[in-house]
Structure formats: C-alpha cells, structure tokens
Amino acid sequence: MTDEPKVSKNGDMPPKIERLRKLVAARFNQQVAEKAVWQRRVRGHLVRALADMRQLKRPPRQSGIAIAARSIAVSGSPVSAKSVQSVQHSRR
C-alpha cells in the first residue's frame, strides 16, 4: 500500500486531491502576500524610527535671525546679512 494518490490513465490526479492541492497553494500564496505587507509596514516603521533617531542626534535647525542674535550675544558686534546668508547656505 502506498500513500501516493492514484493517477488515472490520462495522468490527472483525482478531483479531491486536485482541489486540496489548489486550496493549499491558494493559502500559501495568501500567506506570502500577507508577509510582504507586514514586511513593508515594519520597514516603514523602522525607517521612520531611524530618521527620528538621526534627528535627535543633530541640533535643531536655526533661522538666520537666531544665528545673528547668537553671534551678537557672543561677540557683541552685529553680523552682516551676507555672513548670515552664507551660514544658512552652508547648513542646507
């Protein structure tokens, strides 16, 4: 006695086994699709978390006015608008 399905003369599997095979294949394909969706979601969360971590490491961006005000407070002399613009462009 063998566990293999009986094959008819024309080489086709019995209908019950063929139907079961199709159901198993459909379920497998569904699981693969669900896994792909899950992986995309997780990847998106990881990318956002990494971006947040990088943002925490670097100091917040400051406007030209804040840079000028800080330099006046440090040196006591006003800074020209041109030097403020050059600092802004170098930070971008």
UniProtKB/TrEMBL annotation:
Q: Record's superkingdom?
A: Bacteria
Protein name per the record: Uncharacterized protein
**Annotated source species:** Paracoccus alcaliphilus
